[in-house]
Here is the input.
Amino acid sequence: EHLAVVGEMWAGFSRVAAANPYAWRQQAYTAAEITTPSAENRMVSFPYTKRMVSNPDVDMSSGLIVCSAQRAAELGIPRDRWVFLHAGTDGTDAKMSERVDFVSSASIGVAGRRVLELAGTGVDEVGHLDLYSCFPSAVELALRELDIPIDRQLTVYGGLAFAGGPWNNPVGHALASMVDVLRADPGSLGLVTANGGIVDKHAFGVFSTEPPDGGFRYECPQDEIDARGRRAVAGDHVGPATIETWTVTHERDGSMAKAICACRTPDGARTWADSSDPDVMARFEREDVTGVQVTIDADHVAHPD
Here is the structure.
């Protein structure tokens, strides 16, 4: 059920990329073509296939000219080319092992909502979105935290898996595309989100062809983000634990390589374990093992009960 939902969402990204003349891969895929493993679409890390993950190995560039409105006027830049930054925010989540859970992001929830407040708008009033799309899970976190319906168009340039983007500048392409989109829809608002690290560094910007009434506003609400708390880590835990989430990594030939699971110890701390047992890996790809009890040995190998 999850793959069906994510596949349809990702197919929407591919359709935008197919219509983007600057995209690295200008091809629209169906949900099944995205989520079904094949010779051209190998499994990378269950449940993600090659077409579901970012494509950073590209030869691409982007550019934006930033100046004051006064300077733009002095240079004779036509007014219908101007796009204003209304508000910006950024923040950082706890490191992966210390996150409270893997289905929320304090930084997206706090900083993402704050940028909309600073811009004096709500997400339903924002006409155009580009949500950072290294993997479907990153987009799903933004949808959940910002109450964005999954059936909206979630990108203006096609996303990392299809339109591509250099290792440290896919957002440059999102911003350049957003400028074009806003010029074509004067007066509308656009929201661009960015993340880095292991989905822990986040930034947000709201844009429009009309200037902000109160001028540009910026905040970094890190204290509020940090107040959401952190989870204790027990990296050397040996003994019983409960699977919190998991994946199975694959070799380039499609064979299963290793099962990796994040677990909770009996006192609620987080620990990690893995397994190269073929039966365990097969089970992890066959069943929803959330909540399954395991025993972790001294080599950090998980043995499901």
In short: The two ends are 25 Å apart (CA to CA). Residues 37 and 177 are 31 Å apart (CA to CA).
